[in-house]
């Protein structure tokens, strides 16, 4: 599907890195190097603005390599880009390691997945359909 994008960054457009990748890597767009100290969080700009069609969202998810090797996560993971958002896409990174982590322009800091979603209309009810699970949850089937 085609999606309109404004790229105000110094980077190329986000791209799928492999043939059947679900996510496109997002690159940092910075004036200077940003350092994340242990447990520090910072909003990292991408310079990108997109126009998603109605009924679609974009999810901003962590990259597992950065998470595993450097403890870099996304505080609000998965971040949600609404279809009516026209502002700059930013990524709220957090450093969950005990070492400083440096981010430079062009670094692939996260990945973005475009997905369909529903908007629901509530139908108020006095009772809900019966199921075997019922109210069971939070491990009620056992943890082993
Ligand atoms: O990781 C993210 C999450 C959100 N956004 C942008 C797009 C999204 O449409 C908007 C609002 O995000 P969200 O609804 O998660 O934040 P909120 O705290 O509910 O703010 P708002 O009251 O503006 O909806 O911020 C980003 O750029 N990056
Ligand atoms: Mg919101």
Automatic annotation (TrEMBL):
<keyword id="KW-0460">Magnesium</keyword>
<comment type="pathway">
    <text>Pyrimidine metabolism; dUMP biosynthesis; dUMP from dCTP (dUTP route): step 2/2.</text>
</comment>
<protein>
    <recommendedName>
        <fullName>Deoxyuridine 5'-triphosphate nucleotidohydrolase</fullName>
        <ecNumber>3.6.1.23</ecNumber>
    </recommendedName>
</protein>
<keyword id="KW-0546">Nucleotide metabolism</keyword>
<dbReference type="GO" id="GO:0004170">
    <property type="term" value="F:dUTP diphosphatase activity"/>
</dbReference>
<comment type="similarity">
    <text>Belongs to the dUTPase family.</text>
</comment>
<comment type="function">
    <text>This enzyme is involved in nucleotide metabolism: it produces dUMP, the immediate precursor of thymidine nucleotides and it decreases the intracellular concentration of dUTP so that uracil cannot be incorporated into DNA.</text>
</comment>
<dbReference type="Pfam" id="PF00692">
    <property type="entry name" value="dUTPase"/>
</dbReference>
<feature type="domain" description="dUTPase-like">
    <location>
        <begin position="12"/>
        <end position="142"/>
    </location>
</feature>
<dbReference type="InterPro" id="IPR029054">
    <property type="entry name" value="dUTPase-like"/>
</dbReference>
<keyword id="KW-0378">Hydrolase</keyword>
<feature type="binding site">
    <location>
        <position position="76"/>
    </location>
    <ligand>
        <name>substrate</name>
    </ligand>
</feature>
<dbReference type="InterPro" id="IPR008181">
    <property type="entry name" value="dUTPase"/>
</dbReference>
<dbReference type="InterPro" id="IPR036157">
    <property type="entry name" value="dUTPase-like_sf"/>
</dbReference>
<keyword id="KW-0479">Metal-binding</keyword>
<feature type="binding site">
    <location>
        <begin position="80"/>
        <end position="82"/>
    </location>
    <ligand>
        <name>substrate</name>
    </ligand>
</feature>
<feature type="binding site">
    <location>
        <begin position="63"/>
        <end position="65"/>
    </location>
    <ligand>
        <name>substrate</name>
    </ligand>
</feature>
<dbReference type="InterPro" id="IPR033704">
    <property type="entry name" value="dUTPase_trimeric"/>
</dbReference>
């Amino acid at each position: 599907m085609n999606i309109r994008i404004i790229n105000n960054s110094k980077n190329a457009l986000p791209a799928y890195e492999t043939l059947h990748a679900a996510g496109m890597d997002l690159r940092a767009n910075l004036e200077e190097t940003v350092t994340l100290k242990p447990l520090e969080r910072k909003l990292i700009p991408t310079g990108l603005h997109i126009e998603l069609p109605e009924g679609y969202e974009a999810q901003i998810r962590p990259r597992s390599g950065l998470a595993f090797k450097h403890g870099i996560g996304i505080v609000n993971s998965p971040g949600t880009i609404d279809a009516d958002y026209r502002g700059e896409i930013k990524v709220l990174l957090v450093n969950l390691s005990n070492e400083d982590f440096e981010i430079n322009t062009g670094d692939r800091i996260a990945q973005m997945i475009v997905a369909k979603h529903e908007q629901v209309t509530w139908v108020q009810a006095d009772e809900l359909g019966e199921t075997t699970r019922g109210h069971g949850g939070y491990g009620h089937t056992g943890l082993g």
